[in-house]
Specification:
The complex is a heterotrimer of chains A (436), B (370) and C (324).
Chain A (H helix, E strand, L loop, with lengths): L17 H22 L4 H27 L14 H15 L1 H9 L3 H28 L22 H29 L5 H27 L12 H27 L6 H32 L5 H7 L9 H19 L7 H28 L14 H29 L18
Helix pairs in contact in A: 1-13, 2-13, 3-5, 3-7, 3-8, 3-12, 4-5, 4-7, 5-6, 5-8, 5-13, 6-7, 7-8, 8-9, 8-12, 9-11, 10-12, 11-12
Chain B lengths: L5 E7 L7 H9 L5 E7 L3 H14 L5 E5 L3 E5 L10 H4 L4 E3 L2 E4 L3 H21 L20 H4 L1 H22 L30 E3 L7 E5 L8 E4 H5 L30 H4 L8 E2 L5 E2 L4 H8 L1 H8 L6 E3 L8 E3 L2 H4 L28 H8 L1
Parallel strand pairs in B: 1-2, 7-13
Antiparallel strand pairs in B: 2-4, 3-4, 3-6, 5-6, 8-9, 10-11, 12-13
Helix pairs in contact in B: 1-2, 9-10
Chain C lengths: L2 H17 L7 H32 L3 H4 L9 H19 L4 E3 L9 E6 L8 H9 L12 E6 L21 E6 L8 H5 L5 E3 L5 E3 L9 H5 L5 E3 L14 E3 L11 E3 L4 H4 L6 H5 L5 E5 L6 H8 L1 E3 L11 E5 L2
Parallel strand pairs in C: 1-8, 2-12
Antiparallel strand pairs in C: 2-10, 3-4, 5-6, 7-9, 11-12
Chain lengths: 436, 370, 324
């Protein structure tokens, strides 16, 4: 149940010599155990939150179990709309994972000191998001027990032709990269020594580009399909990146406010301010891209606009997505106005509200608002609508809850380690120290 | 020497007919480190030549990729393989997802050595001499770090990305058209491929209509036998009336016959000289079983299509070496008096999940609502 | 299932921890006991939630779980797999079926053409496909969809598949669409596990025992030619077509893709596809594209032929033509 940011192997070469290698054999298991203890210990609020998330996760697991036993027929998907809620959420959450990198760039490329304190929040978000992504893909499979077919050398990995294999590589790679960075930084802090730059700085640089690649490759999944005009657009990958860099920082800002309130992690206002600056730019870029996509679709008015017409205005009397997408447009615009107005963007409550708004807006726009209309009308121009079933909602909620569970546990541990409550020297964690 | 770690050489066979010496010259100008060679060549021996050339320059690693026999590229070469020909090189090949990864025994050692080396170079580039300066530090006033040194990291990342992208482009985008095309031009027919030869021909059986029709004149009598008469039974004693065009013109017989075959009249096809035969346009008689000759004289292009299998239904075998084929005749599908195929009611409709209940002219009614 | 009560259970424990003093000494011990209790409950709930899934997987045989890709099986292994599948059908449906694994014929590449001047949209091809390929009876599944199109327009937007009026309508023409067996098939490219591929004779096939069910191919296909088994197809035992092919019409499991194979089990035996034999108007032409004397080659050479969505570069082996 508890997830601790760990790194699978630890380089033992370098200044720390042979005796240190021997020491790791003892220290590392101790580190893992203490992380586990820290992640499962806390105040009533923490317990309530974790129990709630566990319960929702179990609901999702039970629904998935039901789906596997009774077939994908329990979902709302059909041969016409063959991807639904799962892939929509997958697409959105890949963006969330990539968005975490927006803290890494200022922290490491531009040596923004305020970011250094909280950059690990973004990296942990990336870890939790990638875990959610992998789960969303897994529940979308008709035969998840055949996952080994996807493994290089063991199965038949259709690399490099299939973009999905690229996605498998980049997502798992990004997970490992972030596990290494977080694990290494926390472990050294646990040991009470300075992290050695050569063990993680190169990886941090790789992670910046890797973050862009995960979302680019995910966009290529869709925009490479010639038979789906809505997706077959060169703007899709940049649009994905722009919206990722809206949803990611928005979520991190909210996390930082929560951490500031509930924990003793030193969250500087300057870090939030930097993220807000990023958000102000990316939200405009995202809106610009949405507008140019809409212009191209509607001004030309070719036969290929059917999907966009369905999405924004409904087609042949079918308009299930229309209220959703206009909600997204409205939230996006209001969020942008709040964030860009000099007065409102100084008030914390307005910032929080704006972050929630743009987060939801992107979730709609890039999730259901992008995946579903790609299938409507179908390639033979039949119009079959899609509504997720209760099973799909349960599984989706379960995965979100599991992701938040991982994220909360990881943040809990991280705060404890950074504040020195969990270290190689400390005997035990005292719950009284923990506010949350 | 420059400290670049990854170099990329693309050799297009058609534009740059490279030989060993050229390869050496190119490679000698490159910095040490990984060398990717992408050869857009269908000729394997050409790539071997380049691999040989590389062997002089770079001991340590040998690795060659081949995709689909059309494109190949190598990463450096090893001295031992200098004399090896292409097939020997591939002896230890492993096929993974359409890629062929080749490596000899020294491959793993070599690649580990490389990774180590690149790692050290990377970390020494990215890290200032004082390795603590880039740490994740919680010191409120850390010392400033030189930006120039730190900016190497992105450059390396960009190079890795470009290589990944190029690999992808090579394999997925640069795909030639299908080697086979089927046009009117007979010369284009893929004669280099062995065409399936019919060894033992089975017949094409065309259904033959029965002889002159019999006409049912009364309900089955007491014994259950229908009373049928042939055409001549009645027509032998009657004068042909050339004015009769439709069954409405008849007062005695055939009144229920619906006639809808263009402007034709009865005696356009029926032979007034012998009602048990049919008549071609030139007046010559055609027997009932040979009715297709009669149809074919007007519907020549359809008949031509039919003779080439492009019109009319069939069952059985497409491959006559495996079994016979049955073909229908004109009148199996077309009523000669009213040849248009009558309207049918579609009986079988898909009942997809969540598909609306079908109703006539779905789109039109909805379009009118808009 | 169990999870909703689980919420209750855990929260009572939590509140119990606040109010009831348990018989343990010291804060830490009580917390530990509570944590252990909560963890036990959680694990129990986890087991209960995952039970149906685990039971399903436990009921699968190791041979089924670990079966390798079709292309990696040698002839003995293929025979063993086919025997297993035949036995399974016998057990589940009580029907003796013959599953054959016919290899592609040398020098053959299949092509199909439909005469749109003749097709009247009666849909008998769909029915024949439905029966021949052991499709799900509830959904009237088939690999063919017949589009009713507006005369004078190739815009599918104006088309319909749900028409039920007598056909042909004078203002319409009818266009059956099924797998075009493309030479550059997007569905094959996107498959992450090579569960679908193009055979030497041009037929794109699916290994039902290798497909992971990601449905990427279904998204990639521009012809709506692929079908997913949202559940295991239901076919009455007495209606099962016993002439089956490993790569075509054998009973499919739930959760895998399937598609038109030009009735591979028939055509590799030299026979015509079921949809062609069933067509009451004789609109369909089938044959070997490599044989210059074949019917299909005559059509390509003498008729004005077009390919559906040719601009997508899929290079279909499926053609449409009009007489005039």
């Amino acid at each position: 149940m508890s997830q601790t940011p760990t790194t699978p192997s630890h380089p033992s070469a370098g200044h720390e010599l042979e005796h240190s290698q021997h020491r790791h054999m003892v220290t590392y298991p101790k580190f893992l155990w203490k992380c586990f203890c820290a992640a499962t210990d806390g105040g009533p609020l923490f317990y309530a939150w974790m129990i709630f998330l566990t319960a929702v996760t179990l609901v999702g697991l039970s629904a998935w179990s039901h789906q596997i036993t009774n077939g994908m027929a329990v979902t709302g998907m059909s041969d016409h709309v063959s991807w639904g809620m799962y892939i929509a959420n997958f697409t959105f959450i890949v963006g969330l994972a990539a968005g975490g990198v927006m803290m890494v760039i200022p922290a490491y490329l531009y040596h923004d000191h305020d970011m250094h304190d909280v950059v690990i929040v973004g990296e942990l978000l990336a870890i939790a998001s990638i875990i959610m992504c992998l789960l969303f893909v897994t529940v979308d499979l008709g035969h998840p027990e055949r996952f080994w077919h996807l493994m290089p050398f063991i199965g038949r990995f259709n690399f490099p032709i299939s973009m999905l294999t690229w996605d498998v590589i980049v997502l798992n790679g990004y997970l490992l990269i972030n596990l290494h960075i977080c694990g290494y930084l926390l472990y050294t802090r646990f040991q009470g020594r300075k992290p050695e730059a050569r063990f993680y700085i190169p990886v941090v640089f790789i992670s910046v580009f890797w973050a862009i690649s995960i979302h680019t490759v995910t966009a290529f999944l869709y925009c490479g399909l010639g038979g789906r005009p809505l997706w077959n657009s060169a703007l899709l990958a940049p649009r994905f990146l722009a919206s990722a860099f809206v949803s990611g920082p928005a979520f991190i800002i909210l996390t930082l406010y929560i951490l500031k309130r509930l924990t003793d992690l030193p969250v500087s206002e300057k870090a939030i301010k930097t993220l807000l600056q990023i958000l102000r730019v990316t939200i405009c870029i995202n809106l610009l891209m949405v507008i140019s996509e809409m212009f191209t679709e509607f001004y030309s008015g070719t036969a290929h606009t059917a999907s966009a017409r369905y999405l924004y205005f409904g087609l042949h009397g079918k308009n299930a997505l229309v209220p959703w997408i206009w909600t997204a447009v409205a939230l996006n615009i209001i969020g942008a106005i709040v964030l860009l107005s000099p007065g409102l963007s100084k008030r914390a409550n307005w910032i929080k509200a704006a972050c929630v708004m743009v987060f939801i807006a992107i979730w709609i726009e890039k999730g259901m608002g992008l995946i579903i209309p790609g299938f409507i009308p179908s390639t033979l121009h039949e119009i079959v609508e899609y509504t997720p079933t209760i099973t799909e909602w349960k599984i989706t909620a379960g995965i979100w809850a599991f992701g938040l569970l991982v994220y909360s546990a990881a943040l809990k541990t991280t705060v404890a380690i950074i504040r020195g409550r969990v270290s190689n020297q400390s005997q035990n964690t005292s719950p009284q120290d923990v506010k949350m | 020497m420059c400290r670049g770690v990854i170099s990329l050489v693309i050799i297009e066979k058609h534009t740059c007919d490279i030989d060993v010496i050229d390869a050496r010259i190119i490679l000698q100008t490159l910095p040490t480190g990984f060398v990717f060679i992408l050869t857009l060549s269908g000729q394997c021996d050409r790539t071997t030549t380049q691999a040989d050339a590389l062997a002089d320059l770079d001991p340590g690693v040998f690795m060659t990729f081949e995709y689909g026999g059309l494109r190949s590229f190598g990463i450096a070469a090893q001295r031992e393989n200098q004399s090896a020909n292409w097939h020997e090189v591939f002896q230890s090949a492993v096929v993974v997802g359409g890629w062929r990864w080749t490596f000899n025994s020294a491959y793993f050692q070599g690649i580990l050595y490389r990774i180590k080396k690149v790692y050290y170079i990377l970390s020494s580039i990215a890290t200032p001499h004082d390795s603590e300066k880039l740490n994740m530090s919680y010191d409120p006033h850390p010392p400033k770090v030189s930006r120039r040194r730190g900016s190497w990291g992105p450059a390396i990342g960009v190079i890795i990305l470009i290589i990944l992208l190029l690999t992808w482009l090579m394999v997925t985008v640069v795909r030639g058209p299908s080697p086979i095309s089927y046009g009117n031009d007979q010369a284009q027919s893929p004669t280099d491929l062995p065409v399936h030869q019919a060894l033992q021909q089975h017949p094409v059986n065309i259904s033959v209509p029965e002889g002159p029709p019999k006409v049912l004149v009364a309900d089955p009598n007491g014994s259950g036998n229908a009373i049928e008469v042939s055409c001549t039974t009645c027509h032998a004693t009657r004068e042909p009336d050339y004015k009769n065009v439709t069954s409405d013109d008849l007062d005695e017989f055939h009144q229920n016959l619906s006639m809808g075959h263009g402007d034709l009249s009865c005696l356009s096809c029926h032979n007034p000289k012998d009602y048990d035969t049919l008549k071609k346009a030139d007046g010559s008689a055609v027997s009932y079983p040979n009715v297709m000759q009669l149809c074919g004289q007007c519907h020549q292009s359809r008949y031509n299509d039919y003779l080439h299998g492009a019109h009319g239904g069939m069952t059985g075998h497409w491959d006559l070496s495996k079994g016979p084929r049955q073909r229908k005749a004109c009148i199996d599908c077309h009523d000669p008096h009213s040849p248009a195929i009558p309207k049918m009611l579609p009986q079988f409709k898909p009942l997809d999940r969540f598909m609306d209940t079908p109703h006539p002219s779905d789109h039109q009614t909805e379009a009118s609502h808009e | 299932m169990t999870p909703p009560p689980e919420v209750q259970d855990n929260s009572t424990v939590d509140s119990a921890g606040k109010t009831v003093s348990l018989p343990v000494i010291g804060q830490v011990s009580r917390r530990t006991a509570l944590k252990a209790f909560g963890a036990t409950l959680g694990i129990a709930a986890f087991g209960a939630a995952a039970k149906p899934m685990l039971e399903k997987y436990a009921s699968m045989s190791p041979e089924e779980m670990l079966q390798r890709h079709y292309k990696e099986l040698d002839s003995d292994e293929r025979a063993a797999v086919i025997n297993r599948l035949q036995d399974e059908t016998k057990v589940r449906h009580g029907v003796d079926v013959t599953i054959r694994d016919l290899p592609p014929l040398e020098g053959v590449k299949y092509g199909y053409a439909i005469n749109l001047s003749v097709c009247n949209g009666n849909g008998e091809c769909m029915r024949a496909c439905h029966k021949e390929n052991n499709h799900d009876r509830e959904s009237n599944q088939s690999y063919i969809r017949v589009l009713e199109m507006q005369r004078g327009s190739m815009d599918m937007e104006k088309g319909s598949t749900t028409y039920t009026h007598p056909v042909p309508d004078d203002d319409k023409f009818y266009m059956p669409v099924q797998c075009q067996q493309c030479d550059n098939p997007p569905c094959v490219d996107v498959c992450p596990v090579e569960a679908t591929w193009k055979e030497k004779d041009g037929i794109v096939v699916v290994d039902y025992n290798w497909c992971i069910g990601c449905r990427y191919c279904e998204a990639a296909c521009p012809y709506h030619a692929r079908r997913f088994n949202w559940k295991a197809p239901t076919v009455p035992d007495d209606e099962i077509n016993p002439d089956q092919g490993y790569l075509s019409n054998r009973m499919r499991p739930a959760g895998v893709m399937e598609k038109c194979t030009f009735c591979l089990h028939r055509v590799r035996d030299g026979r015509l596809p079921a949809c062609l034999e069933a067509c009451p108007t004789g609109a369909r032409v089938f044959g070997n594209l490599l044989d210059p004397d074949s019917e299909i080659r005559w059509v390509l050479a003498n008729k004005r032929v077009f390919m559906l969505k040719e601009e997508l570069g899929t290079q279909p082996s499926f053609f449409y033509y009009f007489d005039e």
